[in-house]
Amino acid sequence: MMPYRNFLLTATLLAVSFSLSSAQDGVLKLYPAHAGKMLTMEQVILNRKLSPANLYCQWVSDTTYAFYDGKAWAVRDISGKDLPLPGEDKTQLPDLPQGAENKTPCGNSIAYTLNGSLYLATPEGIRPIAESPADGIVFGTTVSRNEFGISGGIFPSPDGSEIAFYRKDETRVTKFPLLDITTRTGSLREIRYPMNGMASEHISLGIYNIAKGRTLYVQVTDFDDERYLTGVTWSPDGKYIYIHVLARSQHELHLNMYRTSDGRFVRTLLTEQNDAWVEPQDPLWFVTGRTDLMIYRTDNRDGYRNLYLIDTLGTVRRLTTVDADVEYLGNDGRSVWYASAEMSPAERQVYRLMLPEDRFRIKSGMTGKERSGMTGKERSGMTGKGTVATGKAGKGTVATGKAGKPVRLTKGAGWHEVALSPDCKYLIDNYSGFTTPREVSLCLAADGTKLRHLLSASDPLAEFATGEVLLGTVKSADGRFDNHYRLYKPVDFDPAKKYPVILYVYGGPHGQMVYDRWLGGIRLWEMLMAQKGYVVYVQDNRGTQNHGAAYEKAINRRCGAAEMEDQMVGIRMLQSLPWVDKDRIGVHGWSYGGFMTISLMTHYPEVFKVGVAGGPVIDWKWYEVMYGERYMDTPGTNPDGFAATSLIDKAKDLKGRLLICQGAVDNTVVWEHSLSFVQECIRQQVPLDYFPYPVAEHNVFGRDRVHLMDKVTDYFDVFL
After folding, report:
1. Which pLDDT does position 89 carry in this prediction?
2. How remote is the C-alpha of 706 from its chain's centroid?
3. Is 70 exceeded by the pLDDT of residue 519?
4. N or C: which end of the chain has fewer CB within 10 A?
5. What domains are defined for the chain?
């Protein structure tokens, strides 16, 4: 029987939800208002206790996991028994020098970088793997400014006997000066910053054999020297290495196989081409127990980021067949586990799918030797786009059979983050819903059966005053998609009054803002502003992820256009509500959101009265090659797009009050952007407010962020 308190809460939610949905279309869920204390900015920025309690879990074996509860790490087995923390590694390694970075275990050794060079610390001592010969040539670090899923530059082989690593030559990349005011007279720190359309990095991949002390380089010859190398994957036996080779234009990709013994090219397994862009984000995942069968993810074949089986001859078969973006979690050789947005782009559910019955007998007319590594004429005809297996054999291969029916493992509507045990028998489900702060459970990975409840988080805002929070949808401007939003009503809301609105916006790629998790993915500043009497509105738009390729690629060559159109659909919806003051609408965003803030204020000056833009992109010609050329191409290939999206000539259209804030040592959106806009406002005699954070980079953290958000809040209080 439902407890009386829960019954009252459920009844209240249903009643209020019904009344709201009848007055405002698109409302899906509601968090009820309640009385309580007021938030302070220090609490909003610095108090982690105002986020739901959490367990950060990671598996340490098939049946034991470590977890962090916010205070200390502990280890527990699946029966619930607490275990001692693992002891220290007894391997004696020399102390690493001060400043060592990118520390990566490699068997019984540790690879690390220092001042652009790559070293290996072994029980016998420290040895250099690759030493930087000059400024601008570095080894073992991340490349391509962390795009394409790249997060590091050291890749140990499965048995730890070899190390693959990036070599980055950025000597041709122009430098940008950053002002350091912390020195006695001030000094300039120069960074290599590859701007759109200008010279970029040259990337190569080395392989170091630890026993032989020898390095060879993989022989990549596709496209030109400014190609990208990503998705680096060792075969389980260490004989081959696979690389996603992407043209600088990002319109064509080759998935290539190379021998690790000599670095020679073996074959191209498949190619991807797209007039908008191709964006690899993942390595390959080998099917457990196989050295010739892998799982590959792309959105370039069926319109959504799905999983595919691919063998070492280039035969490709679609594995997940859902019109939704999915994310790989693991496999045990018989089934694959993945997360999917198929219930809703705002939800994340987890599924298990049986691999095709014929997974152990992909047939071939070739011998095992030919399958494992053709050379010369044997490769002729095998490169290109790969064979998409649809029941017919590709050249030299026959792939038949179907995958099983997916089994949904997670039950509650909302967002599920899952940690899968190494043997794929258990999973830890970290779940949050719109009105559920957090639930963490240990489950069977086969069917989702709950074995043990690990955590129930209470509502950390229970003692604080909140207005109603709504989760809903509006249509995209082209009518094809649902865009999710979260909306905060003011505390002590009175429908007879009119309230000012603050639109908080990001809007850029990979920047989904609204989720069906606790309060829609709340930022506590939004709740603080609702306490102060504002309606706060946050909405996703075309261009963000998790909705499929057509949705994501709608921004191609015109960043800001589709995004603004979609945001204005939400604003028009708000303007239709009787309790919204149409003459007092403000907008705030950072980075891409800063670009959106100024774009909205200059394109719709009659709508937006006040704006605060942080670290804004002003002209895409000043942004980096990797990200900027993906979405905009170059000024030479897309001059109309650059002219249409540049905010320099829009400065004259600014009518409202605008504050720009930026870190003065921003190495992501360099200072040239905002200062150029300031200069154009001066030239056009347009009023503008500007506030730099002298020692901040792209974001402002710690107590400095309290200052920043106080300033943002005060700006709206004074002018909106």
Report:
1. 64
2. 26
3. yes
4. N
5. 25-51+460-719 (3.40.50.1820), 97-283 (2.140.10.30), 285-408 (no CATH)
Taking the alpha carbons at both ends of the chain, their separation in whole angstroms is: 49
- Over the chain, what is the mean pLDDT? 91
**Which 8-state DSSP code applies to residue 648?**
G
Taking CA atoms, 637 is separated from 132, 506, 630, 641, 714, in Å, by 35, 27, 12, 9, 43
- 591 carries an active-site annotation: yes
Q: What is the pLDDT of residues 665-711, one digit of tens each?
A: 999 999 999 999 999 999 999 999 999 999 999 999 999 999 999 99
Marked catalytic residue, from 109, 432, 591, 599: 591
**From its phi and psi, is residue 528 left (phi > 0), alpha (psi between -120 and 50) or beta?**
alpha
- For 37, residues 6+ apart whose C-beta sits below 8 A from its C-beta are 463, 464, 465
Q: Is residue 117 among the annotated active site residues?
A: no
DSSP state of 676: H
C-alpha–C-alpha distance, residues 286 and 474, integer Å = 41
- Catalytic residue of the set 109, 364, 666, 674: 666
**Residue-wise pLDDT tens digits, 628-653:** 999 999 999 999 999 999 999 999 99
d(CA 290, CA 355): 13
| Sequence-distant (≥ 6) Cβ neighbours of residue 582 within 8 angstroms | 575
Write the DSSP assignment of 260-307 as a string of letters.
Answer: TTT--EEEEEEEEE-SS--------EEPTT-SSEEEEEESTTTSS-EE
Distance separating alpha carbons of residues 326 and 307, to the nearest angstrom: 7
Here the tokens at position 343 are 């219930």
The torsion of the CA quartet 97, 100, 106, 109, rounded to 10 degrees, works out to: 10
Nearest to 343 by CA among 402, 418, 416: 416
pTM, two decimal places: 0.91
Answer yes or no: 372 catalytic: no
**E strand spans, 505-609:** 535-539, 580-590
Q: pLDDT band for position 359 (50/70/90)?
A: low
SS3 53: coil
Q: Which of 653, 698, 707, 710 is catalytic?
A: 698
Residue 379 pLDDT: 36
Chain centroid, CA 471 distance in Å: 22
The structure tokens listed for 680 are: 């154009």
**pLDDT category, 88, cuts 50, 70, 90?**
low
* Amino acid 370: pLDDT: 38
In the block, which residue shows the tokens 């397994």?
Answer: 269
Instruction: Report the pLDDT averaged over residues 613-617.
Output: 98
Tokens of 4: 């009386």
pLDDT score, position 92:
81
For 292-310, the pLDDT digits (tens) are 999 999 999 999 999 999 9
H or E stretch at 603: helix 592-603
Cβ(635)–Cβ(196) under 8 Å? Answer: yes
Q: Is the separation of the CB atoms in 542 and 555 below 8 Å?
A: yes
Q: What is the mean pLDDT of residues 435-445?
A: 97
- Residue whose token pair is 């890749």: 155
What phi and psi, each to the nearest 5 degrees, are found at residue 34?
-155, 155
pLDDT at position 8 over 80? no
The DSSP secondary-structure symbol of 653 reads G
Residue 142 half-sphere exposure, CB side, CA atoms within 13 Å?
Answer: 12
